[in-house]
Amino acid sequence: MAEKSHVLGMADLLVATAPVKLVTLGLGSCIGLVLFDQQAKVAGMAHIMLPDSRGSGGTEKVGKFADTAVPALFNEMLRHGANKMRIRAKIAGGAQMFALPGASADFLTVGAKNVRETTMRLARLGIALIASDTGGNRGRTIEFSTDNWLLKVKTLGKGVAEI
Amino acid sequence: MSDLGSFNALQLDAIKEVANIGTGNAATALSKLLSCMINMEVPQVELVSIYDLASHYGDPMQTVGAVFVRSTGEFGCSLIFIQKEEAAQLMTGLLLRQQFGAYLPEVIPPEMSDSALSEVGNIVLSSFLNAINLLIGSQHQISVPGVAHDMLSSILDVVASIFGCMGEYALMVNTELKVEGLEVQENSDITGNIILIPDPDALELLLKKLMVM
Asked: Do the chains contact at A56 and B166, CB–CB below 8 Å?
């Protein structure tokens, strides 16, 4: 099938109809969030950087923060004809790239906070999170294809997993 | 917050000069450590959009070796010493061979080269910071170094998330060190970049101490 491939950059958010391939390269502490409705043949992805938009001074990119990205992606899915009862979610990312023993630096654990906030926001909207590959200390490259509705997660030195 | 647009030419020059002094000290330390000549570039002070940090510094998917330290004190900042993976391997190989000679195992265990890499990063970054703090007469504490080998884009996520909390741009002080006079294979330079990520307000303090603010 001739599918269109989209590569999402930092803080991007995109919804498209099948056939489509959604890609995000080199996620570190960021989150790759996928929402999809297999029956309506709609899939969307967001590249979330940070958990909370409050006190950030505002941004035009709704995909940047988990608290704004999840509802925005959800609404965009609905606009593309997805049914809110059928929308499922998959997430990957949220790694902690550096561990500094003894140092307390908030920004080093931003990955875990991203995962927590994204999961919480999904639950609040009643979206079922059916697969996730998060945490650890390795970066991930992710690819979601509407051919099989699977999220391919590539990790350096660990190979490829499909979730 | 450190909006580059709000700094005048004199202040930018001052930041560059401070980074230059730091780099000089770091180059000397690396030179002593490796017993090699080191070439250094004039540091650049740039304002980079956090959305294309990775592509600004190279191929986002390229594997790099990075050492990260955090410094607290009056001039709070984070520092990353970042190298292409091959360069990092060459450099740790060089250092370990000098130290252990014939006793070095044929295949260097990753723990051993990681340990060497973190030590080199530690020495380079600490020398960089020592020079700066000596100059402005402030005290600082440096954390234990953290090492990662991963895609450039994943590593720079750390930087993007630091600046992302405050705005859309990252103020980056970037400089390159190159090991000279090595008899190694072609296209296998040992270079490394030091990236200084000042905490919010740290630059203002720096400029005040230098009396250009």
From this structure: yes
